[in-house]
Structures are given as C-alpha cells and as structure tokens.
Design brief:
This protein is mainly beta and 92 residues long. The chain contains 1 helix and 7 strands. The chain has a 4-stranded antiparallel β-sheet, covered by helices on one side. The protein has a 3-stranded antiparallel β-sheet with strand order 1-2-3. It is globular and about 45 Å long. It starts with a strand and ends with a strand.
C-alpha cells in the first residue's frame, strides 16, 4: 500500500506498507534523505511535498517531490522511481 498524508500546509508524509511475507513500513522521506546524503538542499525549503504518484510494478513506485522556499523561491519539481530494497533513481 502507498499512502500520502498531507499532514500540514507545508509538508506531506509518504509511507509504503508491504504485507507480502513480512510487514514493513518504509518512510519515503527518510529513505530519500539517507540516499541523498549531503545533497539535501531541497529539504531546506519551507514547503516540501513528497507524494506517491502510483505503482510502476510489484516493488516500484513513482514519487513526486515539489515545493518552494528560500532555496528554491520559484519552486521545484522532481520525480523519482523508488524500488523497495534498491533505492531511488531520478526520472526525467
């Protein structure tokens, strides 16, 4: 299950719940921050939204990240493919 919860006017939580074989909860923002390392400037914006667009396969989802703030006053939009167990790949 892919769940995007608009928890406030300036953020969204997106969680993947897996139920096949083992119950698991994957926090997309936490995984994205872990993979990006020091290249996390998008998270220094005041408004950052991470939304699950949809499933691309059994273990892949499309993720859309957008927002604006001091770092990106004109806004930004990024799209990633997230594969469970493998991480993120930026989409064009």
């Amino acid at each position: 299950m892919l769940l995007s919860d608009h928890v406030g006017s300036d953020s969204t939580d997106t969680i993947i719940y897996t139920l096949n074989g083992e119950k698991r909860q994957i926090d997309i923002e936490r995984e994205l921050r872990r993979q990006m390392g020091d290249n996390q400037s998008i998270f220094n914006n005041h408004h950052v939204y991470i939304t699950g667009v949809g499933w691309l396969g059994e273990d892949k989802v499309e993720i859309k990240i957008w927002g604006y703030g001091d770092i990106d006053p004109r806004g930004f939009t990024l799209r990633y493919e997230f594969t469970i167990g493998d991480g993120f790949k930026k989409l064009q």
